[in-house]
Amino acid sequence: MADGQVWNGRLERTELRIAEWGDWRLQRPADIVLGATAKVAPVCLTRGEARLCVDGSRGAEGDWKGNLDLSALPLSLVQPHLPKDMAIAGAMTAKATASGNADGALKADAAVTLPGARLRIPMGEEVRDLDLSKSSVTARVDAKGAHAEAGCPSATSRASMRRRTCPAGPCGPTRRSSGSAARSRHACRTSRS
After folding, report:
1. pLDDT band (50, 70, 90) for residue 181
2. Domain range holding 188?
3. C-alpha distance from residue 169 to each of 8, 93, 98, 166, 183 (Å)
């Protein structure tokens, strides 16, 4: 687009047909503005009770932000990918926000819950029905690094929480320095409570 030009549009209708994920439809029209700055109003797709919404914007100086909101996605959609003697039920809900700038700074937060989730899994001669309905995962990425927590409380065991923190910096198992290989020592700490 030439300097100073702005394109305004509206997404009026969308239908997605995905073999294993079903038919998704646009919940309501969404406005889109493209130019030196950009903005996409929430684009929400629905399939039955499930809903996926995304929106975002970009400023003239390269700063940007985006949001994702997923609700009531049936976990049964992953059933075809599980072993035949396992069964899953319930739903997944997720929210995520991310922002950044032209200098490469990134900040993101995400949270996932599994309302009503149950997993039936064979364990030797018996079958266990695991209640995952109170499970959650949260994650954050910022200038300090990445941090995630996963909790899986169960009616039959005390709450279990795992935390993982990785400092900001270059990633990878090896780093070359002065022509020789040296082990990278970026420690990711995992703790459990």
Report:
1. very low
2. 65-192
3. 39, 31, 19, 9, 14
pLDDT band at 65 (very low <50, low <70, confident <90, very high): very high
DSSP per residue over 8-32, as a string?
Answer: EEEE---EEEETTTEEEEESS-EEE
Q: Rounded CA gap, 101 and 58, in Å?
A: 9
The burial class, CB within 10 Å (0-12 / 13-18 / 19+), for 135 is buried
- 70 with 10, same domain: the answer is no
Strands of 114-173 (E only): list them.
118-123, 126-131, 136-142, 145-151, 161-167
Q: Are residues 114 and 160 in the same domain?
A: yes
Residues 179 and 157 in one domain: yes
Joined together, the tokens standing for residue 7 give 């394109």
pLDDT grade for 147, boundaries at 50, 70 and 90: very high
Q: Is the confidence at residue 117, as pLDDT, over 60?
A: yes
pLDDT category, 112, cuts 50, 70, 90? Answer: very high
d(CA 27, CA 40): 15
State mean pLDDT over 119-124: 90
Kindly state whether residues 93 and 26 are assigned to the same domain: no
For 169: left if phi > 0, alpha if psi spans -120 to 50, otherwise beta; the answer is left
**Residue of higher predicted confidence among 149 and 170:** 149
